[in-house]
Amino acid sequence: MQQVRLAAPWSAVVVGYALAMATQHAVFLLFDIEAAVGEHLAIGLAFVALC
Hints:
The protein is mostly helical. It has one domain (2-50). It has helices at residues 2-30, 37-50. α1 packs across α2 (37-50). The longest helix is centred in the first third of the chain and has 29 residues, at 2-30.
């Protein structure tokens, strides 16, 4: 039962991070900003660290 309680918050974090990466990629394309996948991940991790 404890594993189920821990899985829900972590799955929400993973889904939220994936959504943030997709949104960031779309916005970067919209403004014609080029960034590698590693740079997108680093930017996302920086925001996660701030929150």
